[in-house]
Write a structure and sequence with these properties.
The protein is α/β, with parallel strands linked by helices and 394 residues long. It folds into two domains: 6-44 and 289-389, Aspartate Aminotransferase, domain 1 (Alpha-Beta Complex), CATH 3.90.1150.10; 63-284, Type I PLP-dependent aspartate aminotransferase-like (Major domain) (Aspartate Aminotransferase, domain 2, 3-Layer(aba) Sandwich), CATH 3.40.640.10. 45% of the residues lie in helices and 13% in strands. It is built from 15 helices and twelve strands. The chain has helices spanning 6-9, 15-28, 47-58, 71-85, 99-111, 127-134, 154-160, 183-196, 224-229, 254-267, 273-284, 288-309, 330-335, 341-352, 376-393; strands spanning 34-35, 94-97, 117-122, 138-143, 165-171, 199-203, 230-235, 248-251, 324-325, 354-355, 357-358, 368-371. The chain has a seven-stranded mixed sheet with strand order 2-8-7-6-5-3-4, with helices on both faces. It starts with 5 loop residues before the first helix and ends with a helix. The protein binds pyridoxal-5'-phosphate. The site of pyridoxal-5'-phosphate has 13 residues, from helix 5. Pyridoxal-5'-phosphate binds at residues 39, 99-101, 125, 171, 175, 203, 205, 235, 237, 243, 248.
Length: 394
């Protein structure tokens, strides 16, 4: 075969894949494995969204759309920003793409020249560094410390900035930690970005999944200058349980959005037409299903968190959003005789029959990620199994 391009040779394979493949293999052999690896809500897409998609097809809306998305969808997104964040965007400041993931990919492609640096706080969503590298950029990591709830500080950010820094990624609520930045914290980070002229990429895909008294704040809503300095990334995947529909979007400076639209016109043409109609219904219809799902996640979190931290050797920063727990299990691994967390994760799968994702893939190897996007019954069983495993082996 021919030799592959250097850019793909440098890609790091997804660390989640190995464990997911092994879990699948065990399940096929008839093993009763509980998977806590899921990155998607376990609910069906709400019925009125499905109905709208079908209706659009029956009405003949099955052709190409503008590359940046249907004006009606952009208007629905603009209305959403006004309602939720009091942010006002124009039509040419929005691009809809094939999921937030692809929108981010397109953004880095239009933003980065070879050697440009993008600051990524750890732990990070696995695709950020790979997407930056694919665009010729260099990921620069700043360590979100557990004692600071994994949040990075303005000082850390300042120290990481060089003459090559182009952007910083903020993901609040965060995958994998579930941690949410406050308005004050965001403002302080934003101040550094304004002083140094660093673009803020604000990934707000988990915006609707926030618990307790906490409130999601977009860094873009804190001042007109910060709005201008920020590209907001969002989508319907997590909020409306629409992961498979592949609709995400970016909002921000029209020059960047126009460049992204030009690139999309040659790479995707447009996000799937039917999915765009579904997304219009998602935003223009009732938001009650979104709230119902949020409440279900919140209930699971409140029950499962206490059980998790009751396990010897496990500590966990309490998440305020998203649907992940990101406990530190270094001590639990040591107690059970494993010298690193990757080996502990493998043993959890093979012996305790619970599949979790090792933190090594997120840049923090002492942690594991558990998703609570599964039934309470299975969650309780899974945590009980982990507890049993740790106590029986220590
Ligand atoms: N950003 C974060 C932090 C995510 O966790 C995900 C999905 O897992 C995405 C973006 C991408 O979402 P989608 O491409 O489904 O819109």
């Amino acid at each position: 075969v021919v030799e592959l391009a250097n850019r793909v040779k440098a890609l790091t394979p997804s660390t989640t894949l190995a464990i997911t493949a092994k879990a699948k293999e065990l399940k096929e052999q008839g093993e009763d494995v509980i998977g806590l690896g899921a990155g998607e809500p376990d609910f069906n897409t709400p019925q009125h969204i499905l109905d709208a998609a079908l209706q659009s097809m029956n009405e003949g809306h099955t052709k190409y759309t503008p590359s940046a998305g249907l004006p009606a969808l952009k208007k629905a997104i603009i209305k959403k920003f006004e309602t939720d964040q009091e942010l006002t965007y124009k039509l040419n400041e929005i691009i809809v793409g094939n999921g937030a993931k692809h929108v981010l990919y397109t953004l880095f492609q239009v933003l980065l020249n070879d050697g440009d640096e993008v600051i990524i706080p750890t732990p990070y969503w696995v695709s950020y560094p790979e997407q930056v590298k694919l665009a010729g950029g260099i990921p620069v990591y700043i360590e979100g410390l557990e004692q600071n709830q994994f949040k990075v500080t303005p000082d850390q950010l300042k120290r990481a900035i060089t003459k090559n820094t182009k952007a910083v990624i903020i993901n609040s609520p965060s995958n994998p930690t579930g941690v949410l930045y406050t308005a004050d914290e965001l403002f302080a980070i934003g101040k550094v970005c304004l002083e140094e002229n660093i673009l803020i990429v604000s990934d707000e895909i988990y915006e609707k999944l926030v618990y307790g008294e906490n409130k999601h704040i977009s860094i873009a809503q804190l001042s007109p200058e910060l709005k201008e300095q920020t590209i907001v990334i969002n989508g319907v995947s997590k909020s409306h349980s629409m992961t498979g529909w592949r609709i995400g979007y970016a909002a921000g400076n029209k020059v960047i959005i126009e460049a992204m639209t030009n690139l999309a016109s040659h790479s995707t043409s447009n996000p799937t037409t039917t999915a765009q109609y579904a997304a219009i219904a998602a935003y223009n219809g009732s938001q009650q299903p979104v709230e119902d799902m949020r409440q279900a996640f919140e209930e699971r979190l409140s029950i499962i968190f206490d059980k998790l931290v009751a396990i010897p050797g496990i500590t966990c920063v309490k998440p305020q959003g998203a649907f992940y727990l990101y406990p530190n299990v270094k001590k639990a691994a040591e107690l059970t005789g494993y010298h690193n967390v990757d080996a502990f994760v493998e043993a959890l799968l093979v012996d305790a029959k619970v599949a979790v994702i090792p933190g090594s893939g997120f840049g923090t190897p002492d942690n594991i990620r558990l998703s609570y996007a599964t039934s309470l019954e299975l969650l309780e069983k899974a945590v009980e199994r982990i507890h049993q495993f740790v106590t029986s082996k220590s």
